[in-house]
Design goal:
By secondary structure, the chain is mainly alpha-helical. It is about 35% helix and about 10% strand. A hairpin with a 2-residue loop joins strand 2 and strand 3 (about 115-120).
């Protein structure tokens, strides 16, 4: 029985229609494509583009892979803890070249104040990936691709818990696929570095790092000159 003066919340009728197996598979596949493929591939493409313009940086990453893994086998997930510079390159690509301008929108559940700004309950909150990752108050020389800025800890992690930039977000609304996204990103970058020598094509002076005017992708498709650097049998699928 309601208390006198209490406002009663009307009950809402929800017409719930369960998904069939085909719809569920399509929805899960779409999530995997949008969340688990685009973000890692975008980061790796930008990392390779930046590193080809900095041969010493590229050489340092390749030397780390050779030292940790060698040339007799391919990089495995168990190697990741020792590939800190490779992870720093991927982390720097997430910082400087995010997949999208903004994070997914959230709604505040209560009145709060953040950095002196009052945010009323029910406000739609969007975090700027560009604004965070390229903030000169947080990052020295923020437009410079410099993986060394992430090498301060013993183990480099692609997840940024302090929201100085957004890789997979954080907290209870963070990406639940962060471990998978991390593994895909590091594996893709590490194996590309291990398997091929990368260089700027002879007819180009450098890789064009211009951003697309409508997106944050490379304005021009990445063109690179590559040469296999491992034994032939390692390129054959088993």
């Amino acid at each position: 029985m309601p208390i006198e003066g209490e406002r009663r919340v009307p009950r809402l009728k929800v017409n719930y229609k369960p998904l069939n197996a085909t719809e569920e598979i399509k929805a899960l596949t779409a999530d995997l494509i949008y969340a688990a493929v685009d973000n890692p591939s975008n980061a790796v493409e930008w990392a390779l583009a930046e590193m080809m313009n900095e041969p010493d940086m590229l050489r340092k990453a390749v030397e780390e892979v050779d030292r940790v893994v060698g040339k007799d086998r391919l990089v495995q997930e168990s190697d990741f803890p020792l590939l800190n510079y490779v992870k720093a390159c991927a982390r720097e690509a997430f910082r400087l070249h995010p997949i999208a301008p903004f994070n997914l929108p959230h709604v505040s559940t209560c009145d709060t104040t953040v950095a002196g700004y009052f945010i009323p309950k029910g406000t739609h909150v969007l975090l700027s990936r560009i604004g965070l990752g390229r903030n000169p108050k947080v990052w020295d020389d923020p437009l410079k691709f410099r993986p060394e800025r992430h090498m301060g800890s013993a183990v480099v992690d692609l997840l940024e818990t302090e929201l100085r930039f957004i890789s997979f977000s954080t907290g209870c609304r963070g990406c639940m696929g962060a471990p998978l996204g991390t593994a895909m990103t590091v594996m893709l970058l590490a194996r590309l570095l291990q398997g091929f020598n990368w260089s700027v094509p002879v007819d180009l002076s450098s890789i064009d790092l211009s951003e697309s005017p409508n997106h944050l992708f490379l304005a021009k498709a990445l063109l690179a000159q590559t040469k296999p650097r491992l034994a032939a049998h390692l390129y054959t699928p088993h």
